[in-house]
Amino acid sequence: MFQYIVKRVLLFIPTLITISMITFLICRLAPGDPTEMKVGKTMEGQLADSKNVINEQAKKFYKKKFGLDKPLPEQYYIWMVNMLQGDFGNSFKDDRPVIDKILERLPLTISIQLASICLIYLVAIPIGIYSAVKQYSFWDKSSTVILFILYSLPNFWIATLAIVFLCNVEYIKIFPTSGVQSLTYDYMGFFAQIKDRIMHLFLPVTILSFGSFAFLSKQMRSSMLEVIRQDYIRTAKAKGLSDKKVIYKHALRNSLIPILTLLAGILPAMVGGSFIIETIFSLPGIGQLGIQAIFDRDYPLIMAQLVLVSFLTVLGVLIVDILYAFVDPRIAFDKKTV
Hints:
Helices cover 75% and strands 0% of the residues. By secondary structure, the chain is mainly alpha-helical. The chain has a domain at 98-327: MetI-like (MetI-like fold). Helix 1 packs antiparallel against helix 13 (299-327), helix 5 (98-133) packs across helix 11 and helix 11 (257-280) runs antiparallel to helix 13. The longest helix has 39 residues, at 190-228.
């Protein structure tokens, strides 16, 4: 197992380097100039010519300060060397260290992602199991239709409808429209603060999760159906074991293997989805920070976030491979099969 983990970690190094090269090139070739964001556009009128000269001088100053006057290969080399030393550079917008800006907002995004993943698995796995046990029943057919309707609806549209109908005094005012806490949060008691946080994050977490319910539940259903048709399941039933014991003790463990595989893709996908949800609900996480960085052409901040998402992707793949060995003892990464 240890040798396998070392090999996979070593394989991640060229993978991350390749991803960083592609994302670096995309950032630099994308339309827009960060120096124009700092200087502004040329004014119209009598002072247009003099203003244009001042702007061009300011642009040259900022290009030299940001290192944008160097060739692209040299810019990437400088960025890579600094990144390996833990220095992601300073933001073009406010000259603050990028890592500080990310660390400020990372806890909120992580808490939302973990809550969403837990909600997805807590809802999708039982639905998948029950649909497999009750195959072709009314529950199986109706849950399939409902979940795939939810899967087809874009989360930004659902988020907008939720704000209009569930956060509006003209319809139903149940949840706050934005933010993570109320203005009077510091004056509340402990349990009141917990309730306030839950009310603020309930809609973002739910909307971020519902799209994965259908996908994961159908995968769980298919995996469970395949397992319960195996000979050892029939043998367990023939021995007189109850259906509940057969399903949850013998079939569930093996049917979880493909579900763990999906964890590697859910985590980075949800980080990408948080860019939209955090912006709509005005949540100060790294998703909202990433959207602001794109509009500001803040290259160091964009690159840092893309590297973070890439790292989460490869880390998710590694975690899934390690979990395989614990879920299925037949899997041994450090043994060769003949």
